[in-house]
Amino acid sequence: MNALYTILPYLDNGIIKLKKERGTIMKVCNFGSLNFDKVYAMEHFVEPKETISSIGYMENFGGKGLNQSIALAKAGEEVYHAGKVGKDGQPFIDYLEKYGVHTDYLKKDDNTVTGHAIIQTCKGENCIILFGGANQEIDEKLADEVLSHFEKGDVLLLQNEISSMAYIMKKAHETGMKIVFNTAPMDAKVFTYPLELVDLFIVNEVEGRGLAKVDSKRYEDIIAGLQKAYPDTEIVLTCGGDGSYYIHGKEVVHQEAFMVDAVDTTAAGDTFTGYFLACQMMEMSVQDSLKVASKASSVTVQGHGAAQSIPEWKEVAGALIP
Ligand code: RIB
User: Fold this and answer.
1) Residue 248 CB: number of other CB atoms within 10 A?
2) What local confidence, expressed as pLDDT, does residue 282 receive?
3) Hey, what domains does the chain have and what are their CATH numbers?
4) Which end of the chain has fewer CB atoms within 10 angstroms, the N or the C?
5) Mean pLDDT throughout 152-171?
6) pLDDT at 18 over 60
7) Phi, psi of 234 (to 5 degrees)
8) What does the alpha-carbon distance between residue 299 and residue 295 come to, in Å, rounded to a whole number?
């Protein structure tokens, strides 16, 4: 059947209604970062020894964690954002609540400041410098406290922008939670985590190469490397204009990208992660979940900023209906 026709019932009903009908009560805990994004529009990215003026400036709510919670919430999912902001962090709590994200497990720590990101954007691309701030003050005590509110079958979503990652993974696994790990930003620390506990990786092509430890840039090689390294783990690999792949053992599903003119790719991956997970939680097929997530991120890249450019479910659904 044409994939669109399998998506249509979800588009008509909305995720929450469908979940109620099916009695699905899994909760998503997104233990993740929150950043003030300081975004500089550039004619070219600054180079060593160079001082240049930006041609535009914006401040936005961001952080891979926050963006993914917003994407999940806009897709209609019930999401609990866990993490830490600093003494300046009340606006983040208000912003998440405005979109229906639960903030019960988001702590405000007056001894530190909220994380921030310095983002240069140029011709649809970006480069990012992070300052962790409160995101790097997450300790085992906070992890224990947060995870005590979740149970077997609930989902833990993680990115690589907070401290105590290995501990959080181990505790969640002990509880029987399903662990979804978006390995961004990919660095050597990732390999110090108990990756064998991860149920679903969501990676872009650079992260996929890193995770598979392959040098080749060919998708076939990256996929083969991921299959070899993680034969039992579900993996979603996003490849920009070349679409996305779902890999599980020998099973590989490909979804073509929706081609658009990108003005700012910030939060495209976060949108994909949030939407893919939301679609999977309402038991949509893998192919349709990739399709909806691709469409959602194609909308995100047509707007400026991070969380603010993530579309609502209705907009994504509207764009998928011919
Ligand atoms: O994925 C985009 C995000 O990465 C930005 O919002 C920035 O804060 C960094 O975490």
Assistant:
1) 17
2) 87
3) 3-34+63-115+134-320 (3.40.1190.20)
4) C
5) 98
6) no
7) -75, 140
8) 6
* Token pair 């790719």 in the structure block, residue: 265
Which among 232, 263, 269, 237 is positioned nearest to 68, based on CA atoms?
Answer: 269
DSSP annotation string for 247-266: EETTEEEEEPPPP---SB-T
Q: How far apart are CA 277 and CA 68, in angstroms?
A: 10
Supply the pLDDT for residue 21: 53
DSSP-derived pairing of the beta strands 251-255 and 244-248: antiparallel
Q: What is the 34 CA–ligand 1 centroid distance (Å)?
A: 8
In ligand 1, the atom with minimum distance to the C-alpha of 33 is: 10
Question: Residue 170 is encoded by which pair of tokens?
Answer: 């181990």
**Distance (Å) from CA 24 to ligand 1 centroid:** 31
259 burial via Cβ count (<10 Å: 0-12, 13-18, 19+): exposed
Task: Point out the ligand 1 atom lying closest to the alpha carbon of residue 117.
Answer: 8
Give the distance (Å) from ligand 1 centre to CA of residue 57. 16
Q: Nearest to residue 301, comparing CAs of 266, 274, 275? A: 266
Looking at ligand 1, which residue's alpha carbon is closest to its atom 9?
63
